[in-house]
Design brief:
147 residues, 4-stranded antiparallel sheet, elongated
Length: 147
C-alpha cells in the first residue's frame, strides 16, 4: 500500500490512508483476512477495489455493519461514523451472569478501600483460588475492550 501512495497510520499498523485531490481521504483497514474501505468518494473506493483485485482474490460483502468485533453506526445526514462495542459488552455481561443486575456507580471501589501488594495472593494455592474468581476474568475482558 505504501508503494501505491498510502501512508501507514502511526497509531494502528492495520490502517492506511491516502489524501485525495479534494483534500478528503480514503482509508483502508486491513485485519487478517478482513478489509474495510472508507471514503466520501465512491469513485476512489471503486478504483482502490479494482487495484486490490489485481493483487489478490477478494470477495465483496457489501456495506459493512461491523468490523473486527465493533459495530459501525453511520448517520449520513450528519456525516458521522461511530464505532461501538455494545454487543461485545453485552456478551461479557451475559457470560458472567451480571446482565440486568448492575447499576452505574461513580467509583468502582469505596474511597476508603486501599489496594496493596500485601493483599495479593502469594502461594500457589491462593493463586489457583483467585483464578476461579470471576472478577479477574471480567476485569481482563474489560481491559481488552478498553485497549
Amino acid at each position: 500500500m505504501t508503494e501505491q501512495g498510502y501512508t501507514r497510520s502511526q497509531f494502528d499498523n492495520c490502517v492506511y490512508f491516502h489524501k485525495l485531490l479534494d483534500d478528503s481521504f480514503i482509508y483502508l483497514l486491513l485485519y487478517v483476512d478482513d478489509m474495510l474501505i472508507a471514503s466520501k468518494s465512491k469513485v476512489e473506493i471503486d478504483k482502490l477495489k479494482a487495484q486490490l483485485r489485481t493483487e489478490f482474490e477478494m470477495k465483496e460483502l457489501g456495506e459493512a455493519k461491523e468490523v473486527i468485533g465493533k459495530e459501525i453506526q453511520k448517520d449520513r445526514r450528519k456525516g458521522t461514523v461511530c464505532l461501538t462495542q455494545t454487543q461485545y459488552l453485552k456478551k461479557i455481561l451475559q457470560r458472567f451472569g451480571v446482565d440486568g443486575k448492575t447499576k452505574p456507580v461513580s467509583t468502582p471501589l469505596a474511597p476508603h478501600f486501599k489496594l496493596s501488594a500485601s493483599i495479593s495472593p502469594r502461594t500457589e494455592k491462593e493463586c489457583k483460588h483467585m483464578a476461579q474468581i470471576l472478577y479477574i476474568n471480567v476485569v481482563g475482558a474489560l481491559i481488552y475492550t478498553m485497549v
